[in-house]
Amino acid sequence: MIRALYTAASGMNAQQSNIDNVANNLSNVNTVGFKKSRVEFQDLVYDQTTVPGTPTSTSGEAPIGLEVGLGTRAIATARDFGSGNLRSTNAPLDFAIEGRGFFQVTLPDGQTAYTRAGQLHLNAEGLLVTNEGYALEPQITIPPNATSISVSKDGIVSVALQGQTAAQQVGTMELATFQNPAGLKALGSNLYVSSTASGEPTTGVPGLDGVGTLAQGFLEESNVSVVEEMVNMILGQRAYEANSKVVRTADEMLQQTNNLGR
Questions:
Q1: Hey, is 232 helix, strand or coil?
Q2: Sign (positive/negative) of CA torsion 177, 178, 181, 186?
Q3: pLDDT by residue (tens digit) across 90-124?
Q4: For position 139, what pLDDT does the model report?
Q5: What is the distance, to the nearest Å, from the Cα of residue 193 to the centroid of all Cα atoms in its chain?
Q6: Angle between helices 226-259 and 2-27 (to 10 degrees)
Q7: Whole-prediction pTM value?
Q8: Is 73 in contact with 14 (CB distance < 8 Å)?
Q9: Please, where are the H alpha helices in the chain?
Q10: Rounded CA gap, 133 and 74, in Å?
Q11: Secondary structure (3-state) at 105
Q12: How many whole angstroms separate alpha carbon 126 and alpha carbon 146?
């Protein structure tokens, strides 16, 4: 019965992690470029009383064993990088990626980070930067006398200059892809950095070699489904309640055992 207390407690801890993850998904339902995640579980070690194949006689052996599990634990958080819906903004510096790929930005320490959030702005030097002021990589500078900005699906950035009729190309946006994007390390602020699990990034022009294309004037919404997360929350709550009931039942059984000597 003492074992049941600890086993049920491990289930409660695991479901708490599950509910925490659901809460994070729901809180970011309106975060541009956010990718939902799910908690994955793993059973713990087993107390082997009888091992399968143990001899039962000179000519026989046990076809099955006797073992008792010791609970569960949250082992991983798997992020779903499926595309979210595109929302039209008509803003010339809003971009969405249709398909695979990440925008590349340079952090203050020189490290390259990756994001699906395409809300870009111009800084005082005319560089395309994120909301945090991180410059897009490769850097693209917009001339101060530009009257309009146009970006094609394959990432070519062109501007119309005051007093000129022909558009001028000022740079090309590149996207990064990963063999295992689920292995990226989340930094917050819609940013990720590569890890040994994700592999090294492969950069390329949008629309080539399986890389997604760009949509100017659109933003990618989060891929969180409120209905799905509410269902997950109910399932997690019921699992938590079931484990808490096991704790109460084990406690009552211990109480009954203690009362035997009275």
A1: helix
A2: negative
A3: 999 999 999 999 999 999 999 999 999 999 999 99
A4: 95
A5: 12
A6: 160
A7: 0.86
A8: yes
A9: 2-27, 226-259
A10: 36
A11: strand
A12: 10
